[in-house]
Structure formats: C-alpha cells, structure tokens
Amino acid sequence: MSGIRVALASLSGQADASWAMDAAEYVDAAFLGGIALDDRTRSAAREMVARDRNEFLPDDPIAFIDDQLTVLTDIDLVAGFNVRTTTLGPLREAAAVCRERDAILEINAHCRQAEMCAIGCGESLLKDTERVCEYVETAADAGARVSVKLRTEVPGVDVAAVAEAAADAGASFVHVDAMDSEPVIADVARATEATVIANNGVRDAASVREYLDFGADAVSVGRPSDDPSVLKGVQAATAAWYEDADAGPRKEQTNP
Fold it and tell me: Could you give the CA distance from residue 87 to residue 43 in angstroms, rounded to a whole number?
C-alpha cells in the first residue's frame, strides 16, 4: 500500500501548487497538471486554449514542473505531475525532476480532447499498450514513481489489461477515470498489484464506499477539488471505510 487514500485529480490549467496547498488538509496526494511537454503537445494545447480550454503553457515546462514541486516541498502530501508528450526525451527529463522532488510522474492516457488524440496522446495512447509500457519504462528508468491515468468506455480498450501491462512495465499507480462504468474498478483491482486510484463522481460517502468496495485503494476528487466541504466529507468517508471491521485487504474486497 502507498499510504494514499484520498487524492486530487489533475485539472488542466488549474491544478497547480496553490490548488494543492489549499486542499492539503484533506488529502494525501495531489496530481498537478496536466502539462504538455514537447512541441507537438504544446501546439495542440495552444489550439485548445484558442477555443477556451484552460492549459498550462509556460515557456519551459520542465522548469515549471520543478518550480511547482519545489513550492510543495514542505507540504504534507505526495505530489504528482500529469504529463502529455509524443516523445520520450522530455518525458525522461520530467521524470528526473519528479525523482529529485520525490514526486510521482503521471502519464496521461486519459485526455479526450480532439487535438491531443489526433497526435496520439490522451485516450489515443490508451489504445496502444506497447507505447504506454514504453512511456512507463522510460519514466521508471529515470527513477520516478510512475502513475498512468486511464479512462473506461474507450471502444476496443480493455482497461484492466492495459493497467496490468503498465504495472508490469513499472507503474506503481493506476489512476482510473471510471466514467459511468464503476464496476470496471473491480477488474482493474484484480488485474494488478499496483495502487488503484478511482476517479469520477467522487463527492460523498456513497461514491467513496462504492469505489472502495470494488477494490480501489484510494479515490480522487476532480472538479469539486476546490470545495472544502466535499473534500472533508470524502476524507471522513474514506477513513470510516478503512476503519470498518469488515473492510479487509483490497483484493478481498473486490466484487466478483
């Protein structure tokens, strides 16, 4: 187990160090970003901004990651950075920064934006398990702890199989946006020994219990992550589930 039970999920253009610090009282981890690392993803991000999407577009994305993680050095949470790239060099650099800052490098195989999918990022990467594993291995070889952010309901994709392959390649975390397919979390939990973080619709005790009963190790909060009342409730519900006498190890909690 990683010690992470409640996390903040990255929100492009919004999830920075200040956002994480504001919620640190209630969470164990925060995934900053996402951020585009190379020329093609930065070009796609600029196109997204032009149609009113929020994106981080600093002049130097690697320096930005380092600066943001430095701000969180003395904050009591595990930091991570969600990244998108089409090339391995910048991924290796970002992973090295995460290693130095004791942070998690999270590979984005999740984004649905057309501009990112067109260049093989986001959920398009999810459709290429071999490349997912190459990204994981590259980041892990640079010494970083690695997470992969996945989503369900992508036609032709077996999310549990991708999660298993990513874990075998060196991912310590699989962060799953369950969409409207919450039971898939049980398949993912059975497929891998990596820490499973469940995302989507985590807002109250019922949603927390559902994901943890399906076998997730942790939950993450996305859009309501700036609402202290939601975070406090999620924190309390997660603690209560783990304290329950009937809540055994994760693998015993997965539903058939």
Answer: 14
